[in-house]
Amino acid sequence: MSLFWSLWVTVLTIACWLWILYWLVGTLGYRPKMEDDGTTGHEYDGIQEYDKPLPKWWLIVFFGTMAWSVLYFLLYPSLLPHAWKGITTVEINGRQEPWTSENELLSDLEKNNKTFIGTFDKIVQDPAVTAKLANLDKLQAEQRKNAEPNADLKAQIDKELVALAPTVEKLSKDPQAVKIGQRLFLQNCALCHGSQARGAVGYPNLTDNDWLHGGTPERILQTIEHGRVGAMASWKNQIGEDGVRAAAEYVLSLSPEHGSKANGELDNTLVTQGKAIFDANCTVCHGKKGKGNPDLGAPNLTDNTWLFGGDRETVRTTIRDGRAGVMPHWDNKLGNQRIMLLASYVYSLGGGQPVAAK
Fold first, then answer.
1. Structural domains present in the chain
2. How far is CA 198 from CA 182, 190, 242, in A?
3. Single pTM value for the model
4. What's the rounded Cα separation, in Å, for the pair 339 and 329?
5. Span 247-282, pLDDT tens digits
6. Count of CB atoms within 10 A of residue 52's CB?
7. Of the candidates 327, 322, 328, which has an alpha carbon nearest to the alpha carbon of residue 231?
8. pLDDT 10s digits, 221-244
């Protein structure tokens, strides 16, 4: 709030307060001229006016609110917030800070986070894991100071995530950990992946065995921590519309069900033409046999799982116009303890792959 509006609100508040107090005190001392019958002589539609005192309970409540307003002025930065911060403070990072709505939120989040971490430590009961998480926190804090991500720091962070993978697999078998992870999923991930984690068009199903970036605990941790950016290039300018149709027909031929029963019989001539186009342009990402590449997030084209749909026109659209998808990073939004529990829940859904052999 600017200084002008701060002064405006302050002056208006005090003026209204004094104006009400003036009239209230003034009326308490006012005594009208009374008639012999005990009325003031005023009559409205046959109703005569008496001069009776206000109920004491009403006066107590009213003056109490006036007193509370004065106390409020002292406790909080309600008068000239630029100069007066109030005497109320909240604790943030071990320091007492003046009260503001933002500081109160930060303080509550800090308290809740301490409680959550305490619960996490009780579930894990492993000092080595606590030490790894502390080191991971330091590395991530250092990374956030850089305008651009540091490759060496990212490699160290990924190394720590790999070291935490066995703990994720262990937590996936703990009912309490999975329950907390499910709550975290519903609060943060269900909007895209659905409340049952079965995904939607353009959003991966997390309950099957098809993983764009791999389904081992370390891969799941890395996906949640760093996020993912997927991009399928547009090929309409390079191969033309005839090339798009041929490539789509070949891609459908790789699938056991040819993408969808609605596609009917495939055009073998287009399949042959499409194979040549695929070999020349698509193998760098999807591999010579079309089985994909988890390091790039390129999908396996030889199964029956289709992120955007397996009907002929949808596959053509994908090749013609390309696709783009973004999985946001959650490292600075949730914290590592929550991410581990979230990863354990995702891993427990049935599609997770075992920890990679050392």
1. 104-227+329-348 (1.10.760.10), 230-327 (1.10.760.10)
2. 14, 9, 35
3. 0.78
4. 11
5. 999 999 999 989 888 898 999 999 999 999 999 999
6. 7
7. 322
8. 999 999 999 889 999 999 999 999
